[in-house]
Protein: Amidase
Amino acid sequence: MKRKISIFLALFILIVLFWSQWNWKHLSSFPSIISSFYSKEYCSCYFVMELSEEQCHDFARQWVPISEFKLDKENQSVTVKGLGRTNTAKFQSKEYGCTLLNE
Structure:
């Protein structure tokens, strides 16, 4: 019985490794999605829709937590760090909303 479980586990690990290698481009972009989504959504909520800070945190919150957050009201930008990646969204205008800055 233990031998069958070991073979099944080894086969499962090989399948996961093969799948990960096959989809590496998509998997490697995932960490950036967290901080870019949060910064852009929060920026749009706060500067375009003009909701409160608490409402905008609730609006932008995801199931993966962020580690750092900075709201720069003077420069109208939002910087967020999550899963080791940092992204900044800057308010352009009411018409164009917020855009992500390249970092």
Notes: Strands lie at 68-72, 77-82, 85-93, 97-101. Residues 4 and 10 are 10 Å apart (CA to CA). The chain has a mean pLDDT of 90.
